[in-house]
Amino acid sequence: MRQRRIAMCLFASLYVFGFFAGTAEAGSKLQVVATISDLKALAEAVGGDAVEVAVLARANQNPHDLEVRPSLMIKLRHADALIINGLELDDWANVAVQGSNNPAITPSGIGLIDASRGIPVLEVPGRVDRSMGDVHPAGNPHYTLDPGMAPIITQNIVDGLARVAPEQRAVFERNRREFLTKLETTMARWAKSFEPLRGAKVVVYHADWVYFFTRFGLRQAGTIEERPGIPASPGHLVRLLHQMKEEQVKAVVVEPWSDRELAARIAKEASANLALLNAKLGTVNGPDAYLVTTEANVTALIQALR
Ligand SMILES: [Zn+2]
After folding, report:
1. Whose CA is closest to 231, among 255, 195, 259, 264?
2. How many angstroms separate the alpha carbon of residue 208 from the centre of ligand 1?
3. Is the pLDDT of residue 22 over 80?
4. Other C-beta atoms within 10 Å of 39: how many?
5. pLDDT at position 16, please?
6. How far, in Å, from the CA of 149 to the mean position of ligand 1?
7. Angle CA 219–220–225, to nearest 5
8. Domains of the chain in sequence order
9. Helix 289-305, helix 169-194: angle, nearest 10
């Protein structure tokens, strides 16, 4: 009996100790959730040690198309801030927010951060006559893949986090400056390595590299999807292959969630190289994650274009 009581006391004290240790750790850092990995990486660059960032879409999941499960709502329940991509890419997050019962991250809460504020949006329907599909109704939402957009995105994140924790604004601003200084040097190097490839035509599985291509002087020659979110018809693929051979397209871009088998067949038929981009997404954490994943994309694409 006595032994059992001692054991129970031990268990209770361990539980209490563990409980307080856990909440102290969690309580000292801002709890941030991002819908996609790029935004998680940029939030870690800005937030540094002051934040703990979780992500809703796993790196191998198509960010357009996420099934909202209870686990996402649980992640959001105690979040101080939620960073969304906006431009209708991650509208599925609305459902998760509703289910999270967390007023801080609703549209009227102080913790909701829309990273797209101030982004010069490309391919807005009505302004251009191409690449309009079922999943890009507000224009092309994939601006986070272009490192040149990082100054705008990180400013939005600083402003949002500082709304939640005003006393930390100076820290976020310093982290942002340090990150952008490093990014600027790295981007100059990336731009230099793309210079000899200026104007090179690339076929992509899904139209999510237009911002990146515009930044580095490449051109999207076509997409394997018929329109964003719409799978290819046989007629579309015949036309695409014909065009690729005629224009000597050298690279076909796929991502972890693309139909890679189909893309590999197209690339082979057109004697082009397959470039797997976003392969490192979600595999690195911390303030350098965005630089590491973008570096991997730059390297894979240059390799395919050579
Ligand atoms: Zn898209």
Report:
1. 259
2. 5
3. no
4. 29
5. 40
6. 17
7. 175
8. 18-186 (3.40.50.1980), 187-305 (3.40.50.1980)
9. 10
CA of 109 to the centre of ligand 1 (A): 27
pLDDT score of 28: 87
Percent of the chain with pLDDT over 90: 86
> 27 pLDDT band (50/70/90 cuts)?
low
Distance 8 CA to ligand 1 centre (A): 55
Q: How many angstroms does the Cα of residue 63 sit away from the middle of ligand 1?
A: 8
Average pLDDT over residues 237-254: 98
What is the distance in A from the centroid of ligand 1 to the CA of 268? 25
The tokens for 149 are: 């957009």
pTM, 2 dp: 0.89
- For ligand 1, the distance from its centroid to the CA atom of residue 236, given in whole angstroms, is 18
Question: Are 243 and 222 in contact, with CB atoms under 8 Å apart?
Answer: yes
Side-chain half-sphere exposure of 40, counting CA atoms within 13 A:
22
Alpha carbon of 140 to ligand 1 centroid (Å): 7
Distance CA 50, CA 168 (A): 8
Tens digits of per-residue pLDDT, 111-135? Answer: 999 999 999 999 998 755 545 557 8
pLDDT surpasses 90 at 179: yes
Residue 227 CA to ligand 1 centre (angstroms): 10
Q: Could you tell me the distance, in angstroms and rounded to a whole number, from the CA of residue 15 to the centre of ligand 1?
A: 46
